[in-house]
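User: Please fill in residues for this 163-position structure.
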């Protein structure tokens, strides 16, 4: 037993505090349960499963839908007359990025000095390099969707403009 403080047993003080403390906790717990039951009665509804609500799902899908779509369909380029490949349009779409600026050491279209040695090797070598890639140039100028005929037409166009 502990000594008395102001005439009250210290153990008794601890026991009295615990009774009051536990009483308050039980009271708060009862209040919380009654508040939840009351809220459900006032709302007049059972709890709604929003995860399976089709309106909620539609709203979520609308919010997370992509802004645009990427068209991965293969595009074939044709000339106005419906004939073979148009070298200029192939050049404009696949070759101009490098051969128009000289990027990665590519000879610039129309620069006769830069093209002279290449043209001297012949069209077969130029076709092979353009189709299969050469040094810094990727095969088919980086557009694998081009046919060999379209690549050859672009090479002929660039040679014609650079002689």
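Assistant: Residues filled in for all 163 positions:
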């Amino acid at each position: 037993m502990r000594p008395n403080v102001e005439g009250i047993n210290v153990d008794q003080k601890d026991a009295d505090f615990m009774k009051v403390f536990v009483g308050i906790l039980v009271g708060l717990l009862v209040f919380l349960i009654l508040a939840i039951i009351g809220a459900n009665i006032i709302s007049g509804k059972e709890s709604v499963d929003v995860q399976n609500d089709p309106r909620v799902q539609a709203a979520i899908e609308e919010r997370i839908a992509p802004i645009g779509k990427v068209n991965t369909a293969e595009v074939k380029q044709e000339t106005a007359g419906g004939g073979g490949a148009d070298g200029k349009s192939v050049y404009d779409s696949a070759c101009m990025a490098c051969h128009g600026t000289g990027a990665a050491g590519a000879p610039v279209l129309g620069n006769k000095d830069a093209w002279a040695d290449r043209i001297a090797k012949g069209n077969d070598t130029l076709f092979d390099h353009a189709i299969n890639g050469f040094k810094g140039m990727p095969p088919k100028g980086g557009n694998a969707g081009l046919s060999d005929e379209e690549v050859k037409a672009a090479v002929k166009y660039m040679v014609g403009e650079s002689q």
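For context: The chain has a mean pLDDT of 83.
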